[in-house]
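Problem: given the chain below (301 residues), write out its structure.
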Amino acid sequence: MTAAVLQTTSSSDFSFTDQDFRRIADLANKRYGLFLQPSKKALVYSRLAKRLRALNLPDFESYCALLDRPEAETERPFLLSALTTNVTHFFREMHHFETLRDIIAPQLLEKARNGQAVRLWSSACSAGQEAYCIAAALLAGAPDITKYDFRILATDIDPNIITKAKQATYPAEQIEAIPSTWRERLLVSGSAKSQHITIRDELRQLISFGELNLIEDWPMQRKFDVIMCRNAAIYFDKQTQARLWQRFAGVMETGAHLMIGHSERLSGPATTQFESVGITTYRKQDGPMRSAQPDMKEGKT
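Solution.
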């Protein structure tokens, strides 16, 4: 944190001091792992000013006081939504879904035919588009998966966005991001002509949605064959990113694939455990796991 003092935003509707910003930044880091640099002060103001108006609060000092009280549990989801960006669309970074369809899905089908469970994890699923695209890619590459033990876990830290994901209904304009060759596979017949588009039941049945904070304990028991974590680590500092990649390695099968965002890079001990097999796509290598960092919080496997 820089030692320079940023002045109170006097030209705005609400008083927002450096101390107010630090209190919010510290809470966001402790609870959610978010890394808010001082340069984000104006952005934090613009995003949270709406909450102050909605709550009829006079300044950010009052808002910070609210976050310290027991009733803050009802406000914190709004804080989280304001500080993160849940902007996504179908088939974002298409190369991942093409790899899943053309290379990974047939391999996973063979594993399933041998009587083994197959598990995939969309670990920062936002409003669900990523998870539904994973399901569509699996079915495109291995149509028989519904006969076997295939499951997709889709999680996000924001409970409000998980509620939207479960609804599997999106504004009609989102169809523009779906290539025409994928629309029939992804959408309920006829929904493309209505005001909303709806995901097919065959895909929905493959997915379980749930709320999960990536920096806290993970309750999953089985190891994963594919993990997608795209455009979530950008909110974390470098140390937290390195721990996250290492934790993913610990809950993945040997030979499993990790897919990350285009602006993200593996770091820390995990770099010795994965080999690059495509654009921001990595395969967990054979061999013994390297020990986690001493202060790393391990997930439950």
